[in-house]
Design a protein that fits this description.
Alpha-Beta Plaits; globular
């Protein structure tokens, strides 16, 4: 099992476009032995301390292995809509890890 945590930073005013991309991309995760464990949209009160910009959303996704994650990233259906991601996301931080 591998776990992917992603901090997502949205361009101002592009939330609707981002949600359109997520509506397509999230269901594809299960096609590659993946599971969305958490999708968090924190509000101001959620942050106790921070030394980085506050993300718009935080995702925690689990895949059976690295190959499944790579296959998800290369999915042809997902790739057709990457323009929505590029239009709406200012930056993202992807953190890979293993469950201990």
């Amino acid at each position: 099992m591998i776990h992917i945590t992603q901090l997502i930073y949205i361009k101002e005013g592009q939330e609707k476009i981002f949600h359109q991309f997520e509506d397509i991309a999230i269901p594809i995760i299960s096609k590659y032995n993946g599971k969305l464990l958490l999708r968090i949209r924190p509000d101001e009160k959620s942050f106790i301390e921070y030394a980085v910009d506050k993300p718009y959303e935080i995702h925690l996704v689990e895949f059976d292995d690295e190959k499944d994650f790579e296959a998800f990233m290369k999915d042809e259906e997902r790739k057709k809509f990457l323009h929505l991601k590029e239009q709406s996301i200012k930056a993202s931080v992807l953190i890979k890890g293993n469950k201990l």
